[in-house]
Amino acid sequence: MDTTNDLSEQIIELEQDNLVQTYKRPPFVLSRGEGVTVYDLDGKAYLDFVAGIAVNALGYGDPDVTAAIQQAATGLIHTSNLYYTAPQAELAAMLVEKSFADRVFFANSGAEANEGALKFARKLAYNRGFTDKTQVVCFSHAFHGRTLAAVSLTPKEKYQKPFKPLMPDVIVAEFNDVEGAKAVIGDRTVAVIVEPIQGEGGIYAVSPEFLKTLRTLCDEHQATLIFDEIQCGMGRSGKLWAYEESGVIPDIMTLAKPLAGGLPIGAILVKQSVADAMQPGDHGSTFAGGPLVTAVAKVVLEKVSQPEFLAHVSDVGDYLMERVSEINSPLIKEIRGRGLMVGVEFTVEVGPLVSKAYEQGLLLVNAGENVLRFVPPLILEKQHVDILIEKLTQMLGEIASE
Ligand SMILES: *Cc1c(COP(=O)(O)O)cnc(C)c1O
Known about the structure:
Blueprint: H1 6-18, E1 30-34, E2 37-40, E3 45-48, H2 51-54, H3 63-73, H4 86-97, E4 103-107, H5 110-127, E5 135-139, H6 148-152, H7 157-160, E6 170-173, H8 178-184, E7 189-194, E8 197-198, E9 204-205, H9 208-220, E10 224-228, E11 252-255, E12 266-270, H10 272-275, H11 291-304, H12 307-326, E13 332-338, E14 341-346, H13 351-359, E15 362-363, E16 365-366, E17 371-374, H14 382-401
Parallel strand pairs: 3-15, 5-6, 5-7, 7-10, 10-11
Antiparallel strand pairs: 1-2, 2-3, 4-12, 8-9, 11-12, 13-14, 14-17, 16-17
Helix pairs in contact: 3-11, 4-11, 12-14
This protein binds pyridoxal-5'-phosphate.
C-alpha cells in the first residue's frame, strides 16, 4: 500500500525500531474514529468490522462514554483495592442484577479473568478437602488468552509449543462432542471451561445439548463450569449473555473485551457457592475495578443491556448473515455465528483478503487461517452491511480471477 504521509512512515519506523515485534500490522496509522468508521493519519476512512477485536461495542466517540470518561477523569482515577469506591460497587451490582451471578471479582483483561476463574475453582476444591482434583478440561478450537495458565487452555501448537512446560493437568476434549466430554470429565476434574460461541478458534457456536451435558457432568463430579464470554458476551450474540440461548447456567462466567467501552477491564462473575470459597487475601489486583474504568463500564452495560439495543444487534446480525449467504463465491465454504459475531469459512487462506480490504477502506480480521470473522461495533446499521457486501463481492471476484 502507498503510504504517502511522512508522519505515518515515521511512526511505523519508530514502532519497528522500539517494540517487541509480536504484532504484524498493516502500513497505516489509525488516529481517530467516529461511529463505525476509523481514520488513518492520511485521512483515509475504514469501515470497521473488527471493533478492536470485539471490544468497541458502542463504536467510536459515543457521547455517553466520552462524558463518563471526562467526568471520571476529574475524580479519582486510581485508589487500589485497599479502599471502597462507588463505581466498582455499583458496576458489580449491575452485573449481578443482569446475570445469573451472585458476586463479581474484577480483573484487567480477559486472560487475567480466566486465570482468576481457575484459581477460584481450585480454591473451591481445596476447601472441600480434595487433594487430587486438579484436572481442567478445555476444548478444541478454544481460545482463553495468552498468560501461561490461559494459554495452557488454548490448544494451538503455535501458541503453546515454545512456552512449555505449561500448566499441568489440562485435557483437551472435542468441542460439541457429548460422548467425548463424558469420557474425560470425572472426579479429578476441577473445572471445565468453554466459550458458548468460540471466537478466535473460528466462530463455532456450542450446541445447547453439549452445554447441558457439561452442566450435568460438572454437577455429578463437583467440578466448576466456567463460561468464557469474553468475546461472545455483552450483547454480541443478540442476547446480553450468549449462554441465555441454551438456558444452561455456569458457576463462573468471565467477561472482558467490550465491558468498559475500550478501557481495559476483566470480570469474573460467580455463584454464591464459588464466592464463599474465597476469603480476604486469596486473590487480588492492584489496578482492577478502578473507579475510572468501572464508571465507564456502568454506562456501557446500561446501554448494551437495553432490550431495543439487543433487538438491534439481532436484527442487523440476521441481515449480515443473510447478505453474506447471498454472496455467490466458490471460495466460501461455510457461514456460522449469531448476532454480530459471524464467521465465514473460506476454502483458501483469508490473509490476502484482509490485506485487500485495507485498500478498499475496510477493516477485517481472521479467526484462524481460513475464517473471516465479522465482529463490528454493535451500533452497526444495515447500510454498513450493504457496503461490506459490495466490497467483499468485488474483492472475491478479483481473487477468483487472479
Ligand atoms: C480475547 C479473549 C481472551 C483473552 O483476553 P485478553 O484481554 O486478550 O487477555 C480470552 N477468551 C476469549 C474468548 C477471548 O476472545
